[in-house]
Amino acid sequence: MNTANDRSTKLSATRRDFLRTASMLTGAAALCPLGFRCIARAAEPSQTIVIRGHHLFDMLDALGTGKSSHKTLGPVAQKVRANPKVPIKVVVGVDDICAPCEWWDRAKTHCTKSLKTYPQDNENSMTSDKNALRVLGMKAGDTMSAADLYRLIKVKVTKKVFAEEVCVACRLVNRCKKTYEPRIEAAVKALAEPHS
Ligand code: SF4
What we know:
- Helix content is about 50%, strand content about 10%.
- It is mainly α.
- The protein has a three-stranded mixed beta sheet. A two-stranded antiparallel ribbon has the order 1-2. It has a two-stranded antiparallel ribbon with strand order 5-6.
- The longest helix has 23 residues, at about 5-25.
- The radius of gyration is 20 Å and the shape is globular.
- Iron/sulfur cluster binds near residues 72, 101 and 111.
- Iron/sulfur cluster binds near residues 97, 101, 103 and 113.
């Protein structure tokens, strides 16, 4: 038989659940860096795309031109170009590009593509993921529309920041920094309107 204390405990639990749900719903949008609007996790639509920090930069060319020979990055970039409002969740480590990739080792959770020749690549990629998020003022799990995210990148990541803070650990940085500026320009322009 329920005592008055049991009933009171149950009511408090129900009230706590209600308040928690209400606060999640009212917090559907939160302020992100520079006033860009992050989309709270509770409000994430199901089409959210998960991208690791350094892949935000690897995707620039495909976003700008619509072309990529990479089997898993290309389709993700096409999806973003077709719907620039799609929410992107930023992460450190495996994302929607690595997970289906033939080079991804699920058991060891690392990329095997250049493992023998460049054993430091995985560690350096994780460093670049973390650097990218730090420079953007974001945390792993933060979500923002693709168009806003790339506008934020353009504001926050100059060529110097790209080379000296984001991709500083990557062995390809000297090559990539030469084309960074036109590629971020083209990506932001491409995301200003949907492309089929
Ligand atoms: S598994 Fe390696 S090659 Fe494949 S997308 Fe990830 S980092 Fe690139």
